[in-house]
């Protein structure tokens, strides 16, 4: 096998910018057979489970991959849509919409692709497609508002590793995080206001972020600090007093201590305290997925009701929200500014553009 991926001799020299949106990944089907290889790849990532491979791999390949795929598959089945896994469906839609906006402003200069860190479409496929389209510059945007080594860094690692296989590498920029980006915060705030207008407003708002192990933060991961900052900015935008909302962390995995308070315990505590109506938003997920639709909207609701609560309303993720897509486009445009040649620069950005056909 050739040492490097070479460019075909007759390929035109690249002069385009490739934008690569990367999300976490999801199984191809809601079955144990499809969940197993996805979990094997995900949980073998040393950025995700920081145990020595000699210790962890026998546990993973033994008890975890024997039991968890079937359990997880049942959960996936409860939220699977006719078009597939919600995470993949929304990520694909976001990429399409961003492509529409950027395509209009940059007349073919910018190409957009999306990939999953685990599963399909793979980072290798997306990088190859962008290179085929002549991208000599690559902007990598992991779709995680808050930086964490277990998400953002591993997405970057995987793209860097893929590029290491190329003879003719593109230039590279990465977006590290956007936890305090005004467009992202305002899109979230507006999503919540709209939900309150249509569904009514609960007595308390829980902002639930995915957890990570406590030790990762102690060793310097900025994730918790960024989650707290997002929550503070969101509360400010909504004019929420401190006693009207709680920040919590969901999805604990394994035996180690994770960031606290845990979302399930928070919901149970609110129910026991006599809070009747709770709204839950998950600002760390820009796309609805298993963690929001199953763990919060289904399981979290049960937990809250069993503890004495009356209603739990889950506020959907940003998904294809117009303000969010505009914020995402603005985030990309900001990075492109430093990169575009004078010839490639479009006219001054307009106000929120009309939504292109998807
Ligand atoms: C938003 C950020 C995320 C962080 C941080 C994160 C850390 C993290 N996750 C696990 C273990 C699992 N996560 C699983 C699903 C999952 N996780 C995220 C996001 C973050 N994870 C998403 C978007 C999803 C959903 C994918 C989907 O298909 O919808 C799963 C798989 C499902 C299950 O079996 O529970 C596991 C396992 C660890 C260990 C970790 C931090 C170190
Ligand atoms: Fe996770
Ligand atoms: Fe989970």
From TrEMBL:
Pathway: Porphyrin-containing compound metabolism; protoheme biosynthesis; protoheme from protoporphyrin-IX: step 1/1. The keyword Cytoplasm applies. It catalyses: Fe-coproporphyrin III + 2 H(+) = coproporphyrin III + Fe(2+); heme b + 2 H(+) = protoporphyrin IX + Fe(2+). Its main location: cytoplasm. It is found in: Cytoplasm. Keywords: Cytoplasm, Heme biosynthesis, Iron, Lyase, Metal-binding, Porphyrin biosynthesis. PROSITE patterns: FERROCHELATASE. Its EC number is 4.98.1.1. Fe(2+) binds at residues 210, 291. SUPFAM superfamilies: Chelatase (SSF53800). The keyword Oxidoreductase does not apply. Gene3D superfamilies: 3.40.50.1400. Belongs to the ferrochelatase family. Catalyzes the ferrous insertion into protoporphyrin IX. NCBIfam families: hemH. This is Ferrochelatase. It comes from Chitiniphilus shinanonensis.
């Amino acid at each position: 096998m050739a040492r490097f991926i070479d460019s075909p001799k007759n390929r035109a020299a690249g002069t385009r910018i490739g934008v690569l949106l990367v999300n976490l990944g999801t199984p191809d089907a809601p079955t144990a057979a499809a969940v197993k290889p996805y979990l094997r790849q995900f949980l073998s990532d040393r950025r995700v489970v920081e145990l020595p491979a000699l210790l962890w791999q026998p546990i993973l390949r033994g008890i975890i991959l024997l039991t968890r795929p079937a359990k997880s598959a049942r959960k996936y089945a409860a939220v699977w849509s006719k078009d597939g896994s919600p995470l993949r469906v929304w990520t694909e839609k976001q990429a399409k919409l961003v492509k529409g906006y950027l395509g209009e402003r940059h007349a073919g200069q910018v190409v957009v692709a999306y990939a999953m860190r685990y599963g399909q479409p793979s980072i290798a496929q997306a990088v190859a497609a962008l290179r085929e389209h002549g991208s000599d510059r690559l902007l990598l945007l992991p779709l995680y508002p808050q930086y964490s080594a277990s998400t953002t860094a591993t997405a970057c690692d995987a793209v860097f590793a893929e590029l290491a296989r190329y003879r003719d590498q593109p230039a590279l920029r990465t977006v590290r995080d956007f936890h305090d980006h005004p467009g992202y915060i305002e899109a979230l705030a507006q999503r919540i206001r709209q939900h309150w207008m249509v569904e009514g407003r609960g007595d308390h708002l829980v902002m639930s972020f995915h957890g990570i192990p406590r030790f990762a933060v102690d060793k310097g991961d900025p994730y918790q600090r960024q989650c707290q900052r997002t929550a503070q900015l969101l509360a400010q935008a909504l004019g929420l007093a401190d006693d009207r909302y709680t920040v919590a962390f969901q999805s604990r995995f394994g035996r180690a201590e994770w960031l606290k308070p845990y979302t399930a315990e928070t919901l149970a505590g609110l129910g026991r305290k006599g809070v009747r109506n709770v709204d839950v938003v998950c600002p760390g997920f820009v796309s609805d997925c298993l963690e929001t639709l199953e763990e919060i909207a289904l399981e979290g609701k049960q937990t809250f009701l069993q503890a004495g609560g009356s209603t739990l309303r889950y506020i959907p993720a940003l998904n294809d929200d117009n303000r969010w897509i505009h914020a995402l486009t603005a985030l990309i445009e900001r990075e492109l500014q430093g990169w575009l040649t004078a010839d490639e620069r479009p006219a001054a950005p307009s106000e929120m553009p009309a939504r292109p056909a998807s």
